[in-house]
Amino acid sequence: MKTRQIVIGLISMAVFFVIFVIPFILVLLTASKTPAEAASVDFTLPERWVFWENLVETVQTRDYQLLLAYWNSSVITVGAIVGLVIFGAMVGYVLQRRDTKLTRGLFFMVLAGLMIPPAVVPTIWLLQGINLFKTLHGMVLIQIAYGLGFTVLLYRSFIATIPRDLDEAAIIDGGTPLQIFFRVILPLLKPVTVTIIVVQAIGIFNDFTHPLYYLPGAENVTVQLTLYNFQSQFVSQINLLFMNILLITIPPLLVFIFFNRQIVAGMTSGAVKG
């Protein structure tokens, strides 16, 4: 039995290495080469390492557009995460604690939001009607709307593991609904909150299609759109293109590596009673 587990573990590690590690090493090596060496895109060490030179040139391209993209993506990600955590936890708490026809209908709408794909053109019309098209705060609201279903589902499942006795004790002590939620329930949601922050932040930061549709304009560029914009400019400079890929890949990768255990714990914590 132990031999079988060891073999399965080794095979899993080998598959992980081939699928994830080797491509990352290829990107790193290509980003460290000169344009002539990088043109072949082969798995070889650079004859001359020019990693820093490529990094500086990539950052300075188009008047430091990559730095602007990092700022825009960070603003969108932080704003959307704050909204998702607050509203998702509130809605999940109400849906779990109150079993009425209204809450069951609302929960069905939450599930529908996970299954029904968003309509791009009506969303653009709506954003234009409320003057939020081509704005960062409009993009924040879009990310909240698209991620709220998944967030509510996780919070509802986790809140089911919290005894109702805590709510009743807080009510007896004279706590208002908001006080009960923010002082009693919300602090207990830390495991699933960390999971939601990490998973949603990576997804929002790496989002390409939604900013492409709802956030046009050079001043609204996000990190993923820089790759799209730089493709034509760096078509003969593959090393700079791969450097751009490396720069927009490292932050989400580091977040996932350091918070991997919290993600698994938060995803499985409410599975039994959810």
UniProtKB/TrEMBL annotation:
One of its GO terms (biological process) is transmembrane transport. It is a multi-pass membrane protein. The chain crosses the membrane at residues 7-31, 69-94, 106-127, 139-159, 180-205, 238-259. It is found in: Cell membrane. Residues 70-259 form the ABC transmembrane type-1 domain. GO terms for cellular component: plasma membrane. This is Carbohydrate ABC transporter membrane protein 2, CUT1 family.
